[in-house]
């Protein structure tokens, strides 16, 4: 069967356009995750980490617990976002910047994804309580649109951590093997707190890239102890034990341990596999046309 030149060019255009559209960041729902490096011209605080876990070093009962800055090992970090942008899952293996044997396997679910209009007004959090969302602005104020900059938090997406599906598990063969940290969202000034996890350009708080950031806490306390530790003002979070030192002693006596941390990551869209196939189809057809024209 002979294919007309017009039909062939049509196939070329269709394949190339479909491939490019599928590869568009707006269409990508899988993201490569890396640490957010600080751009000092736009950001106020230090970067260079994917997870910052400063309390790791203070717990004598976490094996090799002396590392704070973690990045994703061997390009393992991925964020998979649902088609409707209401949920996401962060996975990969974290490795300490300062100690290669310190590694955590990440598995965190995010839920109730909202646009800015929904988040900024009173909405219902995962516990059924009314929540008035606040934006965490960590860049220099000059970078935001209301001060003449380019970063617009109204374009961001906002997520809650699903605290029943959020863990750091010590990687097999690492110094943390056998340890699991249960994660929760902080600060908890009002149940789920005034901040949630934010995703968008400049949302990582370290640079102007597409990214995600948020604050977390962790514990391995026995059943029921984690819930009692969700009041996160410095003066009240250890109220049940009277002080941080009392709680630390409680933890060291075999009941677990607690800590806080940050997530600050860059996101790079990964095109769906179909995009490569469609693009190659278009390029293949273009090659056929080129060869025929040379004959």
- How far apart are the termini? 19 Å
Oligomer: single chain
Order of helices and strands: HEEEEEEHEEEEEEHHEH
- Structural class from helices and strands? alpha+beta
Mean pLDDT, all residues: 75
Count every helix, treating DSSP H or I runs of 4 or more residues as helices. 5
Provide the β-strand percentage band: 25-35%
* Rg, Å, rounded: 23 Å
Structural domains: how many: 2
Cα shape: globular
Described by strand count, sense and barrel closure, the largest sheet is: 11 strands, antiparallel
Number of strands: 13
Helix content: 10-25%
Residue windows where pLDDT falls under 50 for at least 5 positions: 18-27, 221-239, 275-283, 285-294
Summarize the structure.
Helix content is 21%, strand content 30%.
Polypeptide structure, described:
- The chain has 295 residues and is α+β, with helices and mostly antiparallel strands.
- The protein folds into two domains: 1-28 and 272-295; 29-270, no CATH class.
- 21% of the residues lie in helices and 30% in strands.
- It is built from five helices and 13 strands.
- The strands form two sheets. Strands 1, 2, 3, 4, 5, 6, 9, 10, 11, 12 and 13 form an eleven-stranded antiparallel beta sheet that branches.
- Helix 1 runs antiparallel to helix 5 (273-294).
- The model is unreliable at 18-27, 221-239, 275-283 and 285-294 (pLDDT under 50).
Write the SSE topology.
Layout: H1 5-23, E1 30-35, E2 51-52, E3 69-72, E4 78-81, E5 88-96, E6 103-114, H2 116-120, E7 123-124, E8 130-131, E9 157-170, E10 180-185, E11 197-201, E12 210-219, H3 225-228, H4 244-255, E13 258-270, H5 273-294
Antiparallel strand pairs: 1-4, 1-13, 2-3, 2-13, 3-5, 4-5, 5-6, 6-9, 7-8, 9-10, 9-11, 10-12, 11-12, 12-13
């Amino acid at each position: 069967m002979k294919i007309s030149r017009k039909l062939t060019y049509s196939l070329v255009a269709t394949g190339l356009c479909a491939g490019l559209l599928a590869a568009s960041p707006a269409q990508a729902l899988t993201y490569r995750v890396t640490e957010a490096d600080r751009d000092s011209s736009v950001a106020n605080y230090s970067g260079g980490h994917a997870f910052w876990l400063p309390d790791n070093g203070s717990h004598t009962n976490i094996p090799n617990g002396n590392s704070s800055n973690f990045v994703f090992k061997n390009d393992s970090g991925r964020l998979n976002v649902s088609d409707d942008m209401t949920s996401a899952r962060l996975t990969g293996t974290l490795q300490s910047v300062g100690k290669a044997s310190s590694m955590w396997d990440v598995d965190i679910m995010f839920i109730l994804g909202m646009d800015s209009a929904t988040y900024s007004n009173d909405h219902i959090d995962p516990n059924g309580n009314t929540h008035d969302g606040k934006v965490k602005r960590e860049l220099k104020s000059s970078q935001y649109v209301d001060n003449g900059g380019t970063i617009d938090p109204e374009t961001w997406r906002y997520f809650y951590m699903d605290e029943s599906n959020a863990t750091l598990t010590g990687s097999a063969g690492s110094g943390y093997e056998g340890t699991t940290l249960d994660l929760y969202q902080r600060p908890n000034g009002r149940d789920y707190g005034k901040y949630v996890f934010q995703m968008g350009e400049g949302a990582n708080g370290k640079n102007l890239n597409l990214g995600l950031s948020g604050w977390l806490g962790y514990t391995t306390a026995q059943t029921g102890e984690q819930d009692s530790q969700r009041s996160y003002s410095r003066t009240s979070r250890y109220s049940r034990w009277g002080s941080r030192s009392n709680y630390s002693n409680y933890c060291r006596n075999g009941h677990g341990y607690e800590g806080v941390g940050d997530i600050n990551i860059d996101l790079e869209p990964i095109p769906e596999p179909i995009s490569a196939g469609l693009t190659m189809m278009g390029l293949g057809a273009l090659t056929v046309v080129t060869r025929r024209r040379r004959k």
